[in-house]
Amino acid sequence: MTLVHPARHLLRAKDLVDARYREPLDVPVLASAAHLSTAHFSREFRRTFGEPPHQYLLTRRLERAAELLRNTDWTVAEICAAVGLRSLGSFTTSFGRTFGVSPTAYRASHPPAAGRARIPTCVLRAWERPPSSSFREDSWPRRL
Q1: Which helix (H) or strand (E) holds 109?
Q2: Cα-based angle 96, 45, 103 (whole degrees, multiple of 5)
Q3: Distance CA 38, CA 122 (A)
Q4: Gap between the Cα atoms of 98 and 115, Å rounded
Q5: Residues 115-131 pLDDT 10s
Q6: What interhelical angle do 38-49 and 53-71 show, nearest 10?
Q7: Distance between CA atoms of 134 and 108, rounded to whole angstroms?
Q8: Does residue 13 sit in helix, strand or coil?
Q9: I need a surface site. Which of 12, 47, 114, 117 has the fewest CB within 10 A?
Q10: Contact in structure between 16 and 25 (CB atoms under 8 Å)
């Protein structure tokens, strides 16, 4: 049996937060994903990533909320629910602490989502892809 670095177990919990931030995640759920006790998990998570697990989860939710405020026409209440927060008042307060403005003022400082053309991700990825002729392997004659 090979030993796994303890931070690797913490990454499981961090990845869980990143993937399922909308769901009601708490320290016991995250600690079980990392295969650690709740107290040890909380201490190690804070020591490794610089913030407690609950704050990391809240930060991910607020970052997603900011993205939704910039790119959708959803109401603030709909966005609050979509990112997994239950209280609109707590959401507004936390958002203001993090971004320095209310969610409504944040949205007003960005151009309206309806005025921008939405480009599909597949088109963006195809545009960013380098041309096949830029790879050396493609320009060499093949010998079989």
Answers
A1: none
A2: 15
A3: 41
A4: 27
A5: 666 778 788 778 777 66
A6: 60
A7: 43
A8: helix
A9: 117
A10: yes
